[in-house]
Amino acid sequence: MRDRQRQKVYDWENKSSWNGKGSDQLNEQQCLFIINNLNKIYKGMRVDTTFVNGDRRYAKCWNRVRHHEIELPRQWALCWSVVLHEYAHAISDSKKYKERPNRAIEPHGKEFVTAFCVLLHKFHPEHPSYKELSQSLRDANVDFEHMESSKFHKQIGRKTIKLTKAKENKDYDFNTSLLKLSPEGRKRTSAGDGHYKPKTKMNRVLCVLDYCIIFLYKDRPITYKQLEASFNKLPYLSDHYNKLIHKVLDKHGKLEPSLVKYMIKQGLIVATSTQNKG
What we know:
Elements: H1 6-15, H2 28-41, E1 47-52, E2 60-63, E3 68-73, H3 80-92, H4 110-123, H5 130-139, H6 151-156, H7 172-176, E4 178-181, H8 183-189, H9 201-216, E5 222-223, H10 224-232, H11 240-252, H12 257-265, E6 269-272
Helix pairs in contact: 2-3, 3-4, 8-9, 9-11
């Protein structure tokens, strides 16, 4: 489908006083706090967030069928306007909040613009009024719908998002670091015959981490959260290694972050921080 308003919307946004691109208004935990609160306000929405490095020009919102995923470049996108922009893509694309659930919409069409303006008015620290937003959109020749009568507005009610309620997660850097086996850790997973040897609790963690990286994530390092999710529910495939790894999981039980941190200190696992890297 054509996206006829895309450049008009970008130009309108870039000229607005509430635009915060490149200002580092927020940190990653605050971005997650905002999105998690929006998920609670817009019931039925599941929007996940990833942060990416490098000089990327666009933030993105992907429709993953059962959920949406927002991708925010660390270099310039950690601000209210970008977070709300991407979340507006998610709710305007959701069947629950569309006026016509089965009708496809333009990515930056009037439905998206309406959702974005509602979020700006309700949650952005500047709280631009509907009147101000409507006039600026007319001046920019951008199409939109009536904001106060929209589902996006009605769903919010009197709910607010206050960053003062966001609690700092001291383990955030650990949870988002990328994990992989060190050469010593890899030696411990087998006896040279290619079979996992989960004799101890630490060896069982190494076996699951190795399995996930190779079979589930195509030789890419994974985060602690991804490793933890694999311990909770690992996709079952009918192959030899999968049967072995399920036996490992049955013997291990719940994964503890303290054990993984200890293994990092012991040099069995390598953790690479994803924060502020190019």
